[in-house]
Amino acid sequence: MMHVVNHILKSRDTIARHNERLSKKGASDEAEYRDQGFSRPTVLVLAPLRSSAHALVHQLLDLLPSTVTTVHNKDRFDEEFGDDQTDDTADKEDGTEWQQIFQAGNNDDAFQIGISFARKSVKLYTDYSRADLIIASPLALRQKVGDILVDIVPGDKSTLKLPVDFLSSIEVCVLDSASVFLMQNMDHVRAVMNAINVTPKEAPHADFSRIREWNLNHQAHYFRQTIVLAHAADAQLNNLLTKSCHNFRGVTRLAPVYDLHHVVPSVSHVIPSIKQIFQRLDTPSQPATCPLVNEPNARFEYFERQILAPLLDHPSKHTMIFVPSYLDFVRVRNVFATQKRLISCAAISEYSTDAQISRARSRFYHGQIHVLLITERFHFYKQYKIRGVRQVFWYAPPSLGPFYAEVLNAMDPEEDSKSVVVCSRFDALRYESNHKIMQQIVGTKKAQRMCGSTPDTKSVYMFC
């Protein structure tokens, strides 16, 4: 937030200094100052939850210079965005990193607030036409702008004009906690990012004599700085950077190394003594086709052959199947429905009601069903500890590495307990070389070997 505060204060000081110079010069003076855009907001911060926005604003206020002595509407902001619970701070520090996100306070994902800066004061809840900073969720911005965002072509800033102007002159865009966006709806994020720096139909508050040349020439997106802060790189975030970010200076990615000396991989956080098996799926390539196109079907066929078939031959209770993608979840759920005479299965997702979840968990714990099928988003939002799990099958590696240790640490292990992860070399291609999902789980060097980055004939790896 220091970068955001610095950018806003310098921009406001520059405009104020130029206003003062223009007021002192005569009408015949030909000096001009190109220091503005079509609208006043220059910084946009996208946050996933109200609690995140609350923390960002308080961090911003702490960074302001001592000359700023007044904050308008702060009590209203704390009431609407703050924590309405009475938990102690010590309690909020318990649990996993993702549990702390929801323990932080208000978890509403539809919010927006404009903030304006003056030399001695800051005003919250400022109208967008007079705001310098906008903090909002992607859902709220998409609702405010409307469905016209869907028609915007990524990278095209000239053929379509927006009915609103507050996104037209954004110079710095920050995506905070972008990994949480992956658990929400990335379509909203993509729509908002495509709408930034699009020329508005009307600019009633603009002084066209002071609008920068690149704004007038539909080139503002080449000068916008976009900062994405995420727990880990992801294919959807990479696609967002490629399609919606066009800064002429290029892109810089910072990623950690996963080993015991830097960022500890998730497998090192597993406490129970469990056989952890990783099975590599090798997708056959076909002429004139991309192997990645065949990967979903190949993974499903591998699941039917290597996991489902043994379960049908010898149904075992207390088995959980973890499916990251909801589309794959529906596919697996349907195949279990066709085999319900041989094996019983309960499926719960982020869309399941509390009654459905409670009934499925109870039946699974008491051994009334064989298999419990869950989605990654269910684990993220509900964060239940599923009791009675003896073995886990991962249809694909989880999108976020910490989920792996969280699920295994909640197991009730026995002598024959195990965890089986189906991975492929495309799980490595989904992420940048230093930020693959398998690297988060087993470490950088081991992931390169297991996913086929180095020559290796083995297809099964086991950790104990």
UniProtKB/TrEMBL annotation:
It is found in: Nucleus, Nucleolus. Keywords: Nucleus. GO terms for molecular function: rRNA binding; U3 snoRNA binding. Its main location: nucleus. InterPro entries: UTP25, UTP25_C, UTP25_NTPase-like. PANTHER family: ORF PROTEIN-RELATED, U3 SMALL NUCLEOLAR RNA-ASSOCIATED PROTEIN 25 HOMOLOG. It holds the Pfam family UTP25_NTPase-like. GO terms for biological process: maturation of SSU-rRNA from tricistronic rRNA transcript (SSU-rRNA, 5.8S rRNA, LSU-rRNA). Residues 267-455 form the UTP25 C-terminal domain. One of its GO terms (cellular component) is small-subunit processome. It comes from Aphanomyces astaci (Crayfish plague agent). Belongs to the UTP25 family. It comes from the Eukaryota. Residues 1-251 form the UTP25 NTP hydrolase-like domain. This is U3 small nucleolar RNA-associated protein 25.
